[in-house]
């Protein structure tokens, strides 16, 4: 038994099986998973975590499965999950940006409507009268 197998036998944590983010759009079940040792207590499927890739770069991946350390294969030097990625602030920025885009679109549409009414030469009293007719009030 080599040193890696001894370390694997001593490890009693969880193994997370992860997929790279660029393949998430496909079925997760069809994607190749990569296994990492993980000591993060609240880790769950769907979490984004940081790992060190085989090229030595840090990358974010998505936890696709969590398994018992007994599932470790002999002879594999499992790397560790570096950390859990907290995207809450980023997610809030995206939500705020989406709201702003929606408001800009609403404002642009309102401006187009105003321009159409102005180019037709309809004043506010006439517009109010037309709206009453549309709403069934004579």
Features:
alpha+beta, five-stranded mixed barrel, 3 helices, 5 strands, 25% strand
Write the layout of secondary structure elements.
Blueprint: H1 3-10, E1 14-20, E2 34-38, E3 48-52, E4 58-68, E5 79-84, H2 88-120, H3 124-134
Parallel strand pairs: 2-5
Antiparallel strand pairs: 1-2, 1-4, 3-4, 3-5
Coarse shape: rod-shaped
Oligomer: single chain
Helix segment count? 3
What pattern of helices and strands is seen along the backbone?
HEEEEEHH
Spatial separation of the terminal alpha carbons: 93 Å
Major sheet: order of its strands? 1-2-5-3-4
Rounded to the nearest angstrom, the radius of gyration is 28 Å
Number of strands: 5
Please give a structural write-up.
It is a single chain. Helix content is 38%, strand content 25%. The protein is α+β, with helices and mostly antiparallel strands and 138 residues long. The chain has a five-stranded mixed barrel with strand order 1-2-5-3-4. The longest helix is centred in the C-terminal third of the chain and has 33 residues, at 88-120. The model has no long low-confidence stretch (mean pLDDT 87). Strand 3 and strand 4 form a beta hairpin. The relative contact order is 0.15. The termini are far apart. The chain folds into two domains: 3-86, no CATH class; 90-134. It has helices at 3-10, 88-120, 124-134; strands at 14-20, 34-38, 48-52, 58-68, 79-84.
